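Data availability (excerpt). The following record was deposited with the supplementary files.
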Amino acid sequence: MKSSRKGFTLIELLVVIAIIAILAAILFPVFAQAKAAAKKAQAISNVKNMGTATELYNTDNDDTYGLATPFLGGTIGQWSWDRFLPVPQLIKTTTNVSLADGIRCHINNAMQPYIKNWDIFQDPFATRHTVAGTSVPNAVGIVAADYTASIPSITYTFNGLLQSMSSTAVAAPASLTTWWNGQGKRSLIGLNYSSPQLICTTPGADCRYVPATSSACSGNGGYSFYTSNASLRGWDMYTRNHIYAYADTHAKTRKSGVYENNKRQDPRSDPFAFYLGQEVDRFRAGGARYWDQFYCHPYLFRPDFDFATWDQVLVAP
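Predicted structure:
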């Protein structure tokens, strides 16, 4: 008896390949969306844990928020509102004691006993980024070789307007941001930063949030340093959403209008106070929007704001 075996024809093979290609075209976007959804869920979990840890920290600290702008002694001798501060792992044994104490007092560093995990400071969508030549790392003696793979990176930023403020003084805990992905897609290796920052320039004086009453914006804590820099890595993290933790410890995503170019954005949802080429900025030529009516503090981070009575957006002085 004879047996014969018949293989696939060329047309049959091409049909199978076409079917596989169609299935791949259908499934790959689904896999990508599932991956993005998983990252988003992880980011929400991260900031939720940070919000809860902040509440625990406050309970042990007389219901008072920590320092987003600590005073740095030693060779620095000023408030750190415009400085990156190292994580404790980068502090040298030879570092001036006063300077080292100031660095450790930064809210990110001081919260570690309550978080016990540096990994949650990095958003899963962000990429590690090195900033070289900053003043505080230089004063500590940090060099490029110190930024190893084991050093954590920081994406989420603390609302610096809450510095040393009683948690009971927050007007709208369910609406006021405590933590958010204020670095965008940039995750700074080994360096902490709060956003926005209180501007404090007088050593020895108290540095706390001062509500605006005029365009003078004077005094320690009387005005804020805006946020706008993602080192060209972008802000579009989760389909034009940002991740927020709030003073009542809940966390969620919220749409942002930062991506709508050449339009005035809604201050009720836009966390930014500065856009290049938009409006007039009191600190540099370029652009500002969505400060309070005196252009001293950005809307969404003001602890005394009730999130119901919005100032009229005025022309900057």
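Summary of structural features: The two ends are 101 Å apart (CA to CA).
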